[in-house]
Amino acid sequence: MIFVVAEIGVNWDGDFDRVREMITNAKEAGCNAVKFQAFDEKIIEGHSERSRLIRSAISKTNVELINEIAKSIGIEWFCTPMYPEAVDVLEPFVKRFKVREADSKPLIENRTSQLFERLLKTNKEIIVSCQKSPRNTVYFNSPQLKWLYCVPKYPCDLTDLDFSNMKDFHGFSNHCSKIIAPVTAAILGAKIIEVHITSDKSKDFVDNNVSFDYSELREMVNLIRLSEKIKK
Description:
- By secondary structure, this protein is α/β, with parallel strands linked by helices.
- The protein has a single domain (3-227), classed as Alpha-Beta Barrel (TIM Barrel).
- It has eight helices and nine strands.
- It has helices at residues 16-29, 50-56, 63-73, 84-90, 101-108, 114-121, 180-187, 214-227, and strands spanning 3-7, 33-38, 76-81, 96-99, 125-130, 145-150, 171-173, 192-197, 211-212.
- Strands 1, 2, 3, 4, 5, 6, 7, 8 and 9 form a nine-stranded parallel sheet that branches.
- The longest helix has 14 residues, at 16-29.
- The mean pLDDT is 96.
């Protein structure tokens, strides 16, 4: 079965009623997991939505409640740590981690980082977003890593996508506003699909321009599940 991830990210705005609603809708749509982000003040320094973003970051103060909510709804959750110390906060609660495209650049160049080394030590699965094929990296065949093709443009157009090397990736991380993008990736063999979601497209949530609402999410998951019935 294709592993479908609903990226809640920063669109919950630090509102626990909203995050419960978003997780519930992801579960009801047929997603396998929901995902969050963990960053600190330094990473978002200078951002126009700095105070708002920090409320949505997973941290020591909210990680237990997020875990309790996800468990009560019955869906896996995991997170993108953006600094090494965040791994320690998350590790007791998650089965896997995510590396954002910006933090995958050293790996594509056959280098490492403090964050990546800390993640490796957990011995848990690491899902890595990157735009370039990882085939020529020393990490390509690591059983601990899963690679997602990702165009780091918010939002990206259909014409920005190039699925010709999809065989080099385990899945696709979507920043396109049209559901045909992740559905096509699934048909072409992606085993992991990650999409951003929002509770309301009419609001000004930070990642709304790359997010699907609940109706679009349900339609996307339904099409992906239908595609799984086709022998490839």
